[in-house]
Structures
1.
Amino acid sequence: MMKYIEKNATNSKISVLPLERAYVLENELAKEENIAVSELTDRLGQTYMELANKESDEVVKDNLPASFLNDKFSLLKANLEEYLYIESDLFDIIQVEGLTLEVDSVFRKYDALFGFKAPKKQEAVIRAYFAEQLGEENSYSLMFNGQDGLWDVNLPIENMAGFTEDLTIAQALELFYQFMFGLGKKLEEK
């Protein structure tokens, strides 16, 4: 969060999401009068979104416009053969590299697949957080990739508190961001 504040403070003001505001104030990273609360869609920064075919990874639609974020998240269930891939500057704060959202073709569950930057030694904390937040421990997949130093994560976004199929893509992204921001705070405590 400090890197973001240093890089993005304009006119002594920093634009943050409501949950980031609480964190910034709690950790005395900025004063209340220097904080401007904004929406997730305003904070996405440089964002790249594409729909691709699950079987071939062939791009179906790329450079999707920001208005695509207003579409219902359930469009992934209507197009089971496709997944949504997103890259955003905002993901740097939560240590996520590339996010794929899809509906599992077999179990019809909404999944989030992504790379997570955290040391291997923090595995117990990560697993405990996922189990606490998602319920049953077998509902997610977590594997450390020594090649790139990232955790390969696959978790059911539909098990996150507040999820419904009526969410827009932007609302689902915000739910995911809140979930991963919470994990970042847990890792910071340890």
2.
Amino acid sequence: MIRNTPPPEPQPLIALADLEAPPWPERAALKMAMMRLRTLLTRRDKTPFIAEDRLDDSADVFGDLATPPFCDPLMDELDDTLADWATDAAPRHWLKPIVLPPCNEQDLLRQWARRHHHDVLAPPARDALLMDTPEQTLDLSGDGVLVIPRLEDWFLRHRCGLGLIRALLEALAGLERHCVIGCNSWAWAFLCKAVDAHLILPEPLTFKPFDEPRLRCWIADIAREQAVEGTRFRLNSNGENIFALDKKDRPREEYFETLAARSRGIAWVAWHIWQRSIKKARDADDNDHSEDDRQTLWVVALEEFSLPGSDGTQALLILQALLIHEDLGARELERVLPDPGTQGMRHALHRAGFIGERDGRYYCRPAAYPAIREGLATAGFPLDAW
């Protein structure tokens, strides 16, 4: 059963420089290191409480995270941070850059702008970004708040793809109008080096990472709303209820502390990892199972992602490009990579679950993000703040 707990208070956005990802619990970090070593040396011999070969995927139990109610906590935090500034007739800074964690499928700032009926600056067509003289007319005039949801839509990582972003930043530098500027963390790290975005715009804000208490309450609310009444969520390794608290209201399991660390406190990454870990027993209707067992969903450890093929560098270059641009068509992806002919690796990454495809555009899957970032870090690629 999931206990009703009061929702956590909205957390105001913090300076990007103050961002700290949730730490790994000591036991979980040691266990992960030992598990990886044991996987290399031998097969797992410890018998779990319920074997994974008796479990089916339960992806249909939950809906898509893009459903607006799931964004409400983050919307509230945007409101809490920006409400006074948006009505200030003479703010200290007219511009509010907000660096968002990667793999943001919800287009969060566009949703926030729509909720408050703010003006949204339409991005250019991607083909126009490679013109020597961009045709996009930058009209930033008007009253009220202007929102630029995704700065990554205004450039391509190409020698001819930075003209429009330079023009936009120049126009923003002299703007005297409330303007919220969204940018994903990988694009922001690139733009700081490529066009000195951090020197032109004020210090950016970002969301406070979801730590264990916040993540547990948030997922509990979603699970309570979407799962059948009375559903229990139990670890297949030992049968423990992952939402159970002890007499001092402390978690009895480290599941959500580990999930917070693994997801780096990114809400939608944690949600997708959580979704992938939920299973149901195939033989739940057998006479061996009680009514309680039939209302149980099992939480399993996820498999480790492994890069396909022998050319890890090519795979990482593709993944880095998709993180910077959030999503790219096949032709656009070829243009921003140093070497052509990467379609084979692109298909391999898609098959391996690292990237997804929607309407002909490729993107990094949120559940794979921790493994992608770890791979880029190990290979010495420049990283983002998230």
